[in-house]
């Protein structure tokens, strides 16, 4: 009789992916320092405030990643871990709604000086949950009846995120979930009713806030309101365009001087274009393309169906968010609140992205081997 057995190869993880992530983080740290110095001095009386906090996130994220690589057991496949993460996600998302708002939204759980954004954890927990559900039936396709609970979980998470409100992140979560269901073998006809319900839900929330409609019109015609709704888009294009083909003027960005809001978070890619030119901007895209390639390769060679689906979902979650961020900066999409993964300032995003990378690298350390009895 034959059976599949996994072999764990300690520290035999994917080297190209590791180098790519390290380069992105290093480049990101430099750009966080460059883009946030003035704002940090104005808001916190210290030019290194955001830089030090980003380093703290990098250190904690790397520590978690290294521990994950040492653990031989694929703990992220355990139902106890998966459902524990899912329950924690729901509790934190609900707790968000009880928190005092920051800039009109309730997206963070915070205690004293510590803040955490549960939507980052929601991506990981949902991806692992769907990978677990979709990999349970190895011989037969999942029926419509078996999809009821996963779909209910997805819609509940979407509703909680929309209530914060965080429309763009909810849309990203929906997109990732749909892709995972598709690659997990769900028949296309099962997407019709959930798709229609999702369309209704997002349409309702789209028209509940005038600023969301304003963002769409600003994206279509930013010149009609250059000092209002179209300001971000115009300033972002100016930043990228002013960098030329190859310009190496680190720290000399003009747009970060309060012309371009959120220069160290949502629009950090624009500062890359301004200070490093077209070469720097393309380099970042190439690095994320390598990340996509290596992540999908890990998925392709993964030892089990769970690992294949989870690796594909985690990879696409990182790359899709990066693509969305770059699209907004270049004026190819309406403004959203997406940070650039591994690059923008934000400890929640950085740590959770490194957890995703840690799972990918852990999967790359394992391979299946058929042995005879």
Describe the protein in words:
It is a single chain. The protein is mainly α and 373 residues long. The chain has one domain. Helix content is 65%, strand content 5%. The chain has twelve helices and four strands. A two-stranded antiparallel ribbon has the order 1-4. Strands 2-3 form a two-stranded antiparallel ribbon. A hairpin with a 2-residue loop joins strand 2 and strand 3. Helix 3 packs antiparallel against helix 4. The longest helix is centred in the last third of the chain and has 34 residues. It starts with a strand and ends with a strand.
Number of helix segments? Answer: 12
Main β sheet profile:
2 strands, antiparallel
Domain unit count: 1
| Rg from alpha-carbon coordinates | 21 Å
* Record field, number of beta strands: 4
User: Numbering strands along the chain, what is their spatial order in the largest sheet?
Assistant: 1-4
How big a fraction of the residues is strand? 5-15%
Helix/strand structural class? mainly alpha
Low-confidence stretches: none
Succession of helices and strands: EHHHEEHHHHHHHHHE
């Amino acid at each position: 009789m034959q059976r599949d057995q996994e072999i764990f190869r300690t520290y035999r993880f994917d080297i190209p992916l590791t180098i790519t992530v390290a380069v992105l983080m290093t480049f990101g740290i430099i750009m966080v320092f460059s883009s946030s110095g003035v704002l940090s001095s104005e808001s916190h009386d210290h030019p290194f405030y955001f830089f030090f906090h980003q380093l703290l996130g990098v250190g904690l994220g790397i520590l978690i990643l290294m521990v994950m690589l040492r653990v031989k057991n694929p703990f992220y496949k355990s139902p106890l871990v998966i459902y524990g993460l899912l329950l924690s996600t729901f509790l934190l998302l609900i707790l968000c709604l009880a928190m005092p708002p920051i800039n009109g939204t309730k997206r963070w759980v915070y205690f004293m000086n510590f803040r955490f954004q549960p939507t980052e954890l929601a991506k990981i927990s949902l991806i692992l949950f769907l990978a677990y559900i979709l990999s349970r039936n190895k011989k037969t396709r999942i029926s419509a009846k078996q999809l009821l609970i996963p779909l209910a979980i997805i819609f509940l998470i979407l509703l909680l995120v929309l209530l914060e409100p965080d429309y763009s992140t909810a849309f990203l979560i929906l997109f990732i979930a749909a892709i995972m269901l598709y690659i997990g073998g769900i028949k296309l006809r099962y997407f019709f009713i959930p798709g229609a319900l999702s369309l209704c839900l997002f349409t309702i929330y789209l028209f509940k806030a005038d600023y969301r409609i304003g963002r769409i019109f600003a994206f279509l015609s930013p010149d009609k309101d250059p000092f209002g709704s179209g300001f971000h888009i115009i300033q972002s294009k100016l930043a990228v365009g002013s960098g030329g083909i190859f310009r190496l003027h680190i720290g000399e960005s003009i747009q970060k001087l309060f012309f371009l809001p959120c220069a160290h978070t949502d629009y950090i890619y624009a500062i890359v274009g301004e200070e490093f030119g077209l070469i720097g901007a393309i380099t970042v895209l190439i690095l994320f393309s390598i990340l996509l390639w290596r992540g999908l390769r890990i998925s392709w060679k993964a030892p089990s169906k769970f690992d294949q689906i989870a690796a594909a979902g985690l990879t696409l979650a990182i790359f899709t968010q990066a693509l969305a961020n770059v699209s907004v900066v270049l004026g190819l999409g309406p403004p959203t609140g997406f940070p650039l993964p591994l690059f923008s300032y934000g400890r929640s995003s950085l740590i959770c992205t490194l957890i995703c990378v840690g799972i990918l690298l852990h999967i790359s350390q394992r391979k299946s081997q058929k042995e005879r009895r």
